[in-house]
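Amino Acid Chain and Its Fold in Token Form
===========================================
Structure side: the spatial fold of the chain, written down as a series of whole-number tokens.
Position: the record begins directly beneath this header, with no further notes in between.
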Amino acid sequence: MAEHDKDDHYQVPGEGVPTGESYEMTPEEKKARARRNIAIAVGVLAFVVIVYSTTLLRMTQNMGGAAG
């Protein structure tokens, strides 16, 4: 039986162990990350606005129907 067959959670030797290596992003990569973060933020904000406005509209319609 192979070593990795014994465990369900096989881990490659050295995986998850800090090596002290670091990577400095280039200015292009930093700009791309910033654009991506802004796009994600706009998408999340749009989703929140849609959910909030839909909820508010439905609650207003329900309140109007109950009073009439």
Remarks:
- The longest helix spans residues 27-67.
